[in-house]
Amino acid sequence: MVFFYSLEKIVEDSVQQKIVDFLQVGGPVVWILMVFSIVALTIVLLKLWQFSSLRAESLKTSNLALDKWRSEENGEKALEILDEKRPIDALVGYTMRALLAANTQADLIREEVERRAMNQLNQLRSYLRPLEIIATLSPLLGLLGTVLGMITAFQQMEGAGNQVDPSVLSGGIWQALLTTAVGLAVAIPVVTLHSWLERKVERVAHNMNDAVTQVFTSKQAKQLVKKVDEELLHAA
User: Fold this and answer.
1) Which distant-in-sequence residues (6+ apart) come within 8 Å of 182 by Cβ?
2) Which of 130, 113, 128, 120 is nearest to 56 (CA)?
3) How far apart, in Å, do the first and last CA atoms of the chain sit?
4) Does residue 43 contact residue 57 with C-beta atoms inside 8 Å?
5) pTM to 2 decimals?
6) Among 169, 214, 175, 228, which Cα is nearest to 69's?
């Protein structure tokens, strides 16, 4: 037992030392890229938690409510099915209630629905911009570190004069290229995750539009809109 604990401790210390050596060789550029990677990971985990807690892409309850809305004369039963903590359900619920109230024109209801949808989508897109910036800056910072490292390597060659040691040059070059490798290692997964999260938001936007359109194009909605138009015409 003591032997395995000691072995685990040695391996842990060795890994920590390698990480420290790696950061020292890479210099400040690698430190910045490591910070970028931690920030990016935090944002991705935050977005995953947001999508999971809101169940933003779920269509189960909204589809059930839409089926009830199309088949029942009493739209209140459809509202009871919805879980309005979910973005799509909240939008569908507002649209149904506004139509059932029968006191607002359809065009005005659509405008308010669009406003609410934009607000909800902006919440889902929050923090995606910093993720995009990290994906853009990481390879550029890596390239900057490589250029600075190459400058240092050639300065060392110049200082050595005729007694240039090839190992010094090759050592300087691989240290310089290290920052580019780290920059790409940060950028590639961040770009992939950013595109994936953007696609999730686009899917939610499409589902919102589809669900609200189904509410408006139902027979019940057309009857309610016609009723409001007739009342406004008589009032005029």
Assistant:
1) 26, 29, 30, 33, 34, 142, 145
2) 120
3) 90
4) no
5) 0.80
6) 214
- What does the alpha-carbon distance between residue 103 and residue 106 come to, in Å, rounded to a whole number? 10
Are 156 and 172 a contacting pair, CB within 8 Å?
yes
Integer Cα distance of 109 and 92 in angstroms: 12
- CB of 218 closer than 8 Å to CB of 70: yes
**Rg of the chain taking only CA atoms, in angstroms:** 29
pLDDT in tens, the chain (236 residues): 544 445 455 445 555 666 666 666 667 888 899 999 999 999 999 999 999 998 888 888 999 988 888 886 667 888 888 888 999 999 999 998 888 887 778 888 899 999 999 999 999 999 999 999 999 999 999 999 888 888 877 777 766 666 656 665 666 677 778 888 899 999 999 999 999 999 999 999 999 999 999 988 888 777 777 776 666 656 55
Contacts of residue 44, defined as CB under 8 A and 6 or more positions apart, other chains included, come to 131, 193, 197
Decide: 197 and 128 in contact? Cβ < 8 Å. Answer: yes
